[in-house]
Amino acid sequence: MEEEEAGVRRWLVDITRWRPSPAQFDAAASLLPSHERPAIARFVKEDDRKRALVSRLLQYSLVRRVLRIPFHQINICRTPEGKPYLHKNCLTFPNFNFNTSHQGDYVGIASEPLCLVGLDIVSISKPQGETTTEFIINFSSYLTDHEWNCILRAGTHSEVLTEFYSKPSMHCL
Q1: Domain ranges, residue 76
Q2: Does some domain include residue 151?
Q3: Name one GO biological process term (predicted).
Q4: CA–CA dist 66, 19 (Å, integer)
Q5: Residues 106 and 35 in one domain
Q6: How far apart are CA 9 and CA 139, in angstroms?
Q7: Do residues 55 and 27 touch, judged by C-beta distance below 8 A?
Q8: Whole-angstrom distance, CA of residue 2 vs CA of residue 51
Q9: What's the number of domains the chain is made of?
């Protein structure tokens, strides 16, 4: 069975160059059910609103495309932690689930028909107001000895940050 048929999806959207006018943004938001719009509008910064909008649009697009549920029948709910889920799964994929993440210029979504799926997008950027070492030391108590040693041996400041953000311990913070 092909991935397309199996319910497995991995989509990533680069929103760097998308600079919608207020009317364009409102038109895109109007594609969503009205109960989804306050979650987007609550953000103060434009970039945060853009990420929230694209995330919601990806969720509805994915469910529509994978499960072929008519758009007006899609009912996406949220766990207390904010993870989206489909209110009534379809019989084709009784364990179908998806997750979204966004940071920086990227918004992503992943779905699985059998396994629980998680997604965590991390934008690696140079710490402001402190050195890379000073920044990472703030998190040393969360790292195992092995993780800490891998980070210290990584090389350049950029490689150290990449290694730091790739550690499982950092995904739990």
Answers
A1: 3-112
A2: yes
A3: lysine biosynthetic process via aminoadipic acid
A4: 29
A5: yes
A6: 33
A7: no
A8: 30
A9: 2
